[in-house]
Recover the amino acids of this structure.
């Protein structure tokens, strides 16, 4: 009888644990993005929106009607607004990242990568604005620069506070390369006239 009692206990124990076995529940893990990821995402968005502007400009010729020009300008203004929104989003993400990772330090290589990405974004925007100026003139383009310069300045300022020396490195990468409206934008952002 003892053997059957022990067997009964073992079977009951196995049955009980199979019913009470833990259920696997997915755990969400949120890794805080670092400055490199944030700026890569920002640059991707800049490429998308400057591509939209460039393709819009490709449809404009000297024979385009006033209505076609107005439609193109509306599309360009919307794309510029989207770049400003992307810059604002990047700035917010950078500020959050700064609070979450105060102790993180960036190596010289990280600084160069982030500076390069920042310079590419600025160069892309400046080059596109140069094409806008060639097509629609300085008055229209000047109206676009104010909001862009403000939003980009915030991103670069926050980025420089987190990573350090980004403004100096990015400014060195784009300084002297751009002319016209692109040079004006770079001058505003990096203090190079």
């Amino acid at each position: 009888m003892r053997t059957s009692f022990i067997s009964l206990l073992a079977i009951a124990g196995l049955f009980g644990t199979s019913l009470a076995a833990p259920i696997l529940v997915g755990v969400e893990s949120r890794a805080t993005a670092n400055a490199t990821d944030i700026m890569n995402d920002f640059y991707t968005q800049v490429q998308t929106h400057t591509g939209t502007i460039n393709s819009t400009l490709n449809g404009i010729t000297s024979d385009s009607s006033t209505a076609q020009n107005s439609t193109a300008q509306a599309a360009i203004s919307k794309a510029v607004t989207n770049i400003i929104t992307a810059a604002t989003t990047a700035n917010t993400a950078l500020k959050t990242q700064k609070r979450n990772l105060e102790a993180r330090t960036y190596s010289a290589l990280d600084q160069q990568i982030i500076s390069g990405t920042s310079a590419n974004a600025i160069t892309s925007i400046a080059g596109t604005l140069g094409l806008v100026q060639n097509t629609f003139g300085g008055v229209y383009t000047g109206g676009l620069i104010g909001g862009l310069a403000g939003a980009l300045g915030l991103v670069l300022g926050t980025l420089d506070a987190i990573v350090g020396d980004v403004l100096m490195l990015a400014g060195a990468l784009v300084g002297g390369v751009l002319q016209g409206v692109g040079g004006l934008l770079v001058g505003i952002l990096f203090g190079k006239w």
Summary: The chain has a mean pLDDT of 74. The two ends are 99 Å apart (CA to CA). Helices lie at 2-19, 35-58, 66-100, 108-136, 138-163, 166-174, 181-190. The chain has one domain: 35-190.
